[in-house]
Amino acid sequence: MHIEWFKTNLTQIQKICLAGLFIALAVIMQKVVAINYIPVLPFVRVSFCGPALIIFSSILLGPIYGLLVGAASDLFGYLIFDPRTYPPFLQITAIYAVLGFGSYFVFSLVRSIRSRKLMLGIEISSLTAIWVAATLFLLLNAQVELVFKIVVPIVSGLLFIGLILFSTLYKGKEDNPFISPLHICFASFVCDFLFLLLFGSCMKALAFGFNLFVTIFLCQALVMFVNVMLDTIFISTFQRFTKKYFVEVK
Predict the structure, then answer these.
(1) 212-250 pLDDT, tens digit each
(2) Which of 12, 88, 92, 198 has the fewest CB atoms below 10 angstroms from its CB?
(3) How much is the pTM?
C-alpha cells in the first residue's frame, strides 16, 4: 500500500497564524459550544466541533502543529474558563495532544485504502463489538439499575445504526475529490476509537479514578457515535474551503 502523506503549500508564517486561529476556535467549541463537567459525569465532554478542528489542524498543518493545537486549546480553555472550579487535568490535555499529533498519520494511512468494503467492514465489526461488550456488561452487572440496562443499550444501538447508515450514505460535495467523505468518516472513526475511546478512557481513569474506567469507557463510546458523524461533516466542509492549499504528491 502506497501511503500518500498530506502536503501543503503553506509557509511557516501561515501555519503559525492558522494554528493560533485553530486554537482560539477550538477553545470556543470545546468550552462554550459544548457540554462539559456534568455533575454526575464530570469526565464527559460533548463538543460539536472541537475534535474536528484539532484533527483538521493536524491534516492541514502537520502533526507537530496538530499536537500544539490540541494541547494548547485544552490548556487555554481550562485557564480561561475553569481555574477556580476544577483542578488542572493534564491527563485530559494529553488526550487532545495525542489526537492532534496522531490524526495526520491516521488520515494519511486511511487515504491510501482503496477498498470501500474493507473500511465499512472494519467500522461495522468494531462498533458491533463495542456495543455487544457494553450491553453485556450492563445486563450482567447487578449494581446497574434496571432502567439503565434497558435505556443505554437501546440508545447506543440507535446511535450505532445511525452511524453505520451515515457512513454508508453520506456523500458530501462531489466537487471535493482530495479525500472522499467515506475516507474521512472511517479515519474519524479510527481517530476517535484509538485516541478518544481507548487512550482517552485510560487517561480520564487516571485523572478520576480507575474504579470509574468502565463508566468512562461506556460514556466515551456513546460520545464517539456522535463525534464521528460531526467530525465527518465538519472536516469535509473545512476541506472544501482549503483544498487549494493541498499539494498532490506524484
Answers:
(1) 888 888 888 888 888 888 898 899 888 888 888 888 765
(2) 12
(3) 0.88
Query: Collapsing DSSP states into helix, strand and coil, what is residue 3?
Result: coil
The CA distance from 81 to 96, in Å, is 17
Contact 48, 230 (CB under 8 A): yes
**Separation between Cα atoms, residue 190 and residue 184, nearest integer Å:** 10
Confidence band, pLDDT 50/70/90 cuts, at residue 172: low
Cell 467500522 found at: 123
Q: Which domain CATH number covers 43?
A: 1.10.1760.20
pLDDT digits (tens, 9 = 90+) for 32-90: 877 766 666 666 777 778 899 999 999 999 999 999 999 999 999 888 876 666 677 78
Is residue 5 within 8 Å of 108, Cβ to Cβ? yes
Torsion of CA 82, 88, 91, 92, to 10 degrees: 0
Give dist(CA 45, CA 224) in Å, integer: 11
Q: Is residue 250 part of a domain?
A: no
> Cell digits for 202?
485510560
Domain total of the chain: 1
